[in-house]
What does this fold into?
Amino acid sequence: MGRTADAIAEGVAIATAAARLAVKNQILVGTIARGGVFDAEKYLDVAREALRAMATESEQAAENVTRLRKRARGRHSDPAGTHDYRDRDVRNLRRRAKQSAGVAERLNAMIDDPEKLGVLVEEARVAAWADVRGNLDRRLVVEGMRPDQDPDYDAMREARMQALRLVDLQALSSQQRAKRKRETTA
It folds into this structure.
């Protein structure tokens, strides 16, 4: 595999991760916030739309880079800025356009592949459950912990008290001074 193939594979991986995140968020909203039931078929459409958006973005990037490449051809002066391309940049811009077009092509192929869409939805479902499970674990450990169950309670008590004195009470004192100052100026 050459640099272009590597860049396309990396672009597809990034776009797929973004699509998976979008599907995961929709699963969380649909099942938790709206009290719905997980239906893989419904989220296939969400995955398809997320991939389509990523493919469109890659197509637009390819078109933009192609326009920049055409404008750069034959320009030999020093550039005025980062995106002020010159003739020496034409080869690199051609490669970038090819890479963006390759990413769009692969993503469009994924849109038409029910198996790959199913894998994307399943990965998003697993990620959504991991988020829920992690949040529940943290809440249960923190909210359900009693001092006699925490083996580090005594060791950490002094640190907590010091943080209370140095951070929390100082912040509270500062807030009270600011409040009094506002009241006297008003």
Observations:
- The chain is about 80% helix and 0% strand.
- The first helix runs from residue 3 to 33.
